[in-house]
Amino acid sequence: MAHLKLGEILIKQGLITQQQLKQAIEVQKKEKGRLGEILIRLGILTEDDIIAALGTQLSLPYAQTADALIPQFDQELEKFISEEFAKKNLVLPLSKNMSSLTCAVSDPLDLIMLDNLKRLTGCTINPVLATRTELIKAINKFYSVDKGKDGKTSMLGDAVQDSYTQQSEIAPSKIEAAESAELSIDKLIQKAGEAPVIKLVDLIIRQAIDERASDIHIEPFKDKICLRYRIDGALYQIPPPAAHLHLPIVSRIKILSKLDIAEKRLPQDGAITAKLEDRTVDIRISTIPTVWGEKVVMRILDKNAVPLELSGLGYDARQLELIRKSLKTPYGLFFVTGPTGSGKSTTLYAALSETIDPSKNIITVEDPVEFKIDGINQVHVKPEIGLTFATALRSFLRQDPDVIMVGEVRDLETASICVRAALTGHFVLSTLHTNDAASAITRLLDIGIEPYLLTPSLAMILAQRLARKLCAKCKEPYEPLPEQHGGIKFKSDLIYRAKGCDECNQTGYRGRSVVSEVMPIDDAIREMISEKASYIKIRDAARKAGMDTLFEAGLKKVEEGITSFNEIVSVTNV
Question: Which of 325, 385, 412, 539 is within CB 3.0–4.6 Å of 438 for a Cys-Cys bond?
Answer without folding.
Answer: 539
